[in-house]
TrEMBL record:
Main location: secreted
GO annotations of cellular component type: extracellular region
Disulfide bond entries: 62-77, 80-93, 83-101
TNFR-Cys repeat windows: 61-101
Domain of life: Eukaryota
Name of the protein: Tumor necrosis factor receptor superfamily member 6B-like
Residues of the signal peptide: 1-20
Length: 280
């Protein structure tokens, strides 16, 4: 009943607004049959009682949480709409206008609710940023480009060209840049330190439920608690542990990931040996 009454009041106020763009009075027929011209109530007020032959229109201010936006003779103010789940207030409710809400950052209005912006898939960059009213638009990165930047806002960026004594140990793909390293880097930092950021990013892209579950099994098999992540393991992994990583990933049925990791580790080890031989 309340919802139907609110709808009636809203429709009435709109009709009054349409019919009174110029006039701020309206004609009323009294029970006696006499006609009288009454004043509208201003925005922010409602009509407490209509005028008579001897008394003008009585208006009252809307109380907190209610409003009227136009000149009117509605018997009640309209209730301000609440913000929905995952919305934030863009403009507060006042006596004179309704509350305006919009989806909070990271969400957009989809039919009747706020939905999370699309996170671009592996190898895709943001073409058009999402807004409170529109979803993110993604595009696949073209040849020679990779998706760079924070998760949810990656952009297709040209590969970095190796300079000077740098060598491309790992060529760029659509999800990572060229990995350029010098022999001095291998000597001073060691290949395990150099490869860990690349492996970290590779693990971060394993976002399927089955992949995440198997990575947790791997972490637990390394005598770490369920609170630890694969990133925690990677941070403390020794050279020997990294060498054995492909085999251990295969044991938890992550064969495809195991092959990728094995290829990258072998390339770094090969380049490190080349640098050692060239120094000797």
């Amino acid at each position: 009943m309340t919802r139907a009454w609110n709808l009636f009041i809203f429709v009435l106020s709109v009709l009054i607004c349409i019919s009174s763009q110029e006039e701020r009075t309206y004609q009323r027929t009294l029970p006696s049959g006499a006609k009288v011209v009454c004043d509208f109530c201003p925005p922010g007020d409602y009509q407490r009682s209509p005028c008579t032959l001897t008394r003008p229109t009585e208006c009252r201010q809307c109380r907190d949480g209610f409003y009227t936006e136009f000149w009117n003779y509605v018997p009640e103010c309209l209730p301000c709409d609440p913000c929905e789940v995952n919305q934030e207030e863009k403009r507060p409710c006042t006596r004179f206008h309704n509350r305006v809400c919009q989806c909070k950052p990271g969400y957009f209005w989809h039919s009747h609710y706020c939905k999370k912006h699309t996170v671009c898939s592996l190898g895709e960059g943001v073409k058009t940023e999402g807004t409170p009213s529109k979803d993110t638009v993604c595009e696949p990165c073209a040849n020679g480009h990779y998706a760079a930047g924070p998760e949810g806002n990656k952009r297709c960026t040209p590969y970095t060209a190796c300079k000077g004594q740098e060598k491309p140990v790992i060529s760029g793909t659509n999800w990572h840049d060229n990995i350029c390293v010098t022999c001095d880097n291998f000597t001073t930092q060691g290949w395990p330190t150099l490869i860990k950021p690349l492996l970290s990013e590779l693990f971060a892209h394993q976002n399927g439920k089955r992949q995440i579950h198997r990575l947790r099994r791997f972490v637990q098999s390394e005598n770490m608690t369920s609170e630890h992540t694969v990133q925690d393991w990677l941070n403390q992994a020794s050279e020997e542990q990294l060498k054995n990583l492909p085999e251990k990933l295969e044991r938890v049925n992550l064969q495809h990931l195991s092959l990728k990791v094995d290829h990258k580790i072998k390339r770094f080890i090969q380049e490190a040996k080349y640098c050692d031989n060239s120094i000797m």
